[in-house]
Amino acid sequence: MAFSRISKLDPPSRGIFRRAAVMLCSLLTSLFLLHCLADRCSSSSTSPSPVRASSGRLIEDLRSLRTKRLAYEWTAGSELTGYGAGRRSSRVLADERTGRGSNSELPEEDEEAFILPPPDLVASRKVSPRFAGKLSPLGEGSKKLPQALIIGVKKGGTRALLEFLRVHPDIRAVGAEPHFFDRNYENGLEWYRELMPKTLEGQITMEKTPSYFVTREAPARISAMSRSTKLIVVVRDPVTRAISDYTQTLSKKPDIPSFESLTFKNRTTGLIDTSWSAIQIGIYAKHLDNWLQYFPMEQILFVSGERLISDPAGELGRVQDFLGLKRIITDKHFYFNQTKGFPCLKKAEGSSKPHCLGKTKGRTHPNIDPEVVQRLRDFYRPFNMKFYQMTGRFFGWDD
Fold first, then answer.
1. Residue 198 φ then ψ, to 5°
2. Reading across the β-sheet that carries 104-105, which strands appear in turn?
């Protein structure tokens, strides 16, 4: 009887055993998974959980896309914002700044080649990467107002000088022309500061806007920012500069009048039209008088545009001395491009490739009547002589 009762209990015992085995396996599996998760978390205590990490990446991606969209709107002429209409696309600008291709080229030195973001975008720190200059290590450095400015002159070689200087590790410069002291002064110094790249202790913040030199209000405004600001002016033979200025305009507006007709108020009398900006910019002594009311000559360095081509290392040496920097940029940084007719960098800042000025540099000048050229040389001669005396340097434009 006892045996038969035990036999009847066997089937239920086996069923309970199976259920217990299944539960035990499930428990072990859960423990194993928990152990794996715990081990993963302990290996990186500061890392977010997989869910949070994915969520964080998604948020960052969305922010990045939004920033890119905003940048595109004010660089590509988006109809949505109406800002920057008719400008080149941000991709074209990015290609020019990053130097795609085997021989990367710099953008044209042109006031219209770059535009600035609206103040509200700058205030919210959504500033285009092309204003960043050299990058400081993450979380290091701070944005400062510039201690040195390249203030002129248009078509003198300011773009070349800026790009050459950016090779120096102690110089951080804005790539675009801010035009703060002539066009955007009402936006305020904080707006201006936000355009600057971050700098570390001992580094110099710079920017270049060639039109400052001929802007009457610029000296007082820069002096109000800082009386110790160092000023750099790249000057060039005013006759050649005027023709180069005209050539640039002609490339954009082929239907403009001839150089000769714009040069004279009256061709018969030979009276030069000094109201034409191409002529007016080259009266360097007149503009310098305005600057000397606010800055001593010791704070102004004049760079020869001609020597910047024939001896770039020599002129860069003078600039580095003026800025109080070690002479790091030397002959080894340059090679002369026979095709273009001017020096190029063997290795540009942030790149291992040669870097030359853009295709728009070295345009072929139109043929100008030699009599007109001589009239211009006669016109500029007394101004040039005064300029030589004021600066204490003979530039040789009247040889």
1. -70, 145
2. 104-105, 355-356, 342-345, 334-337
- The contacts of residue 346 (CB under 8 Å, 6+ apart) are 332, 333, 334, 335, 354
For residues 270 and 355, what is the distance between their CA atoms, to the nearest angstrom?
Answer: 43
Please choose, from the candidates 388, 276, 390, the residue with its C-alpha nearest in 3D space to the C-alpha of residue 398. Answer: 388
What is the reported pTM? 0.68
337: Cα within 13 Å, side-chain hemisphere: 19
Residues 6+ apart with CB under 8 A from 214: 152, 153, 277, 280, 281, 287
At 348, phi and psi to the nearest 5?
-80, 165
Distance CA 124, CA 197 (A): 15
- pLDDT tens-digit series, residues 151-180: 999 999 999 999 999 999 999 999 899 999
Share of the chain above pLDDT 70, in %: 66
Check residue 64 and report its DSSP letter.
Answer: H
For residue range 290-337, list pLDDT tens digits in order. Answer: 999 999 999 999 999 999 999 999 999 999 999 999 999 999 999 888
Q: For residue 108, give the DSSP letter.
A: P
pLDDT at 335: 87
